[in-house]
């Protein structure tokens, strides 16, 4: 077993793999000065990246929608990621790919090349057998279909969220829910699995869960009201750091007596099976 | 005269004044990874900071509203700024103070100390005798009263804005205008000076312009519709990089035959006089 305590961490920054402590960017970076950047995040389990191509597809889409050229080819990106996984040999590794508008001479206009960072970090899953508690929050991300670096509102509300004993937020606006701060939301009502279609980030876990659910349930992708969410039989959330996790409570509404529902359990195991394929 | 070409630039970063090329922050900074940070910007003219205390007041207010402790006292901040002005002896110096949520171990929760950068750069004023052209844009900043690092939408629309020949955006939502991407907006109708009261950043130039206008015009701070803006006699914008600049055109509406209006000229000279006090 590797000596984790004394293990060096390695990052990638603008063409170079380097010790994490040396991964520093100049203060004129447009991600830092203006929040102009995107990222993606996926896992490597026992040295094997999970759904990497889906995440790189999404990174490319975010980059295109933000007008940010990716300075490495897809093939080279994968080589770098595999090298980083070897250099950071944790059983569970989270890999964050961040790309910003570069070193802007005027502090406002994106400049080429984009700054590209790849930051691997060991991580721990949310336990799959404990439900999460959400706090409703009136909000919609600015450009929901892009995985931007913009998290001011959910971070600013962290103290209030923790005071309420909640693990995450449930965004809603004009009566409809959209997503959580970093994951997608599904509800189950009368054996129908329902998830918001618009105004959300199209999660990779969401995609596979939808595929799997279509084989076992009736599935609807459409607007979902907050009211029907609170009246659902079961609610669950999906994301790369969570896989499928039950929501046991939203504000004061408790689902299924606080226990994980049968259908959510079934979807959890279907997804785990799919991921381990 | 200093040898600008070969002049070194100096920044401040977390307790140290250092050469700009060495001003680098680690990639785990929460401003970079999550856009969690604030800034302020003011000028030094011929070595003398302009309205510095107003800007530091606003920085403190932004910091408080974001829950970010400022790692230096007000007095020490001013000492550092004055030292940076001496080390960067440009006639016109823009001074940007940036503060972020620190090096976050989990990449999400703000950590202490905040990262504090002060970045001086020479700059050039928008010419006061040429009007600017604005493109209307349906948008409102997420937390308008805080000077956050969040500029994704206006930067993303830059290519479209430039294609339209516009110099900046005019934000409007639900029929009301708010501000431009980096400055405040005033309209003049029948010798009344009117500016939006809510949903805007409270600019330091805006504050002094309001004070001065109250001595010479009727002044209203209230909701301002886009319709009345387009029907105004004169429109102008205020900001630390602009002072007072006329708006000669919004979309296809031209004001005052494209020339700077008399009342705007008066306010320009009133402000310049006040600044040079």
From TrEMBL, chains A, B:
One Pfam family named in its UniProt record: Aminotran_4
EC class (word): transferase
Classification via SUPFAM superfamilies: D-aminoacid aminotransferase-like PLP-dependent enzymes
Gene Ontology molecular functions: branched-chain-amino-acid transaminase activity
Keywords: Aminotransferase, Pyridoxal phosphate, Transferase
GO aspect biological process, one term: carboxylic acid biosynthetic process
Cofactor(s), by name: pyridoxal 5'-phosphate
Record EC number: 2.6.1.42
Pathway: Amino-acid biosynthesis; L-valine biosynthesis; L-valine from pyruvate: step 4/4; Amino-acid biosynthesis; L-leucine biosynthesis; L-leucine from 3-methyl-2-oxobutanoate: step 4/4; Amino-acid biosynthesis; L-isoleucine biosynthesis; L-isoleucine from 2-oxobutanoate: step 4/4
Catalytic activity, as annotated: L-leucine + 2-oxoglutarate = 4-methyl-2-oxopentanoate + L-glutamate; L-valine + 2-oxoglutarate = 3-methyl-2-oxobutanoate + L-glutamate; L-isoleucine + 2-oxoglutarate = (S)-3-methyl-2-oxopentanoate + L-glutamate
Family (UniProt): Belongs to the class-IV pyridoxal-phosphate-dependent aminotransferase family.
Name of the protein this chain belongs to: branched-chain-amino-acid transaminase
Annotated source species: Pseudarcicella hirudinis
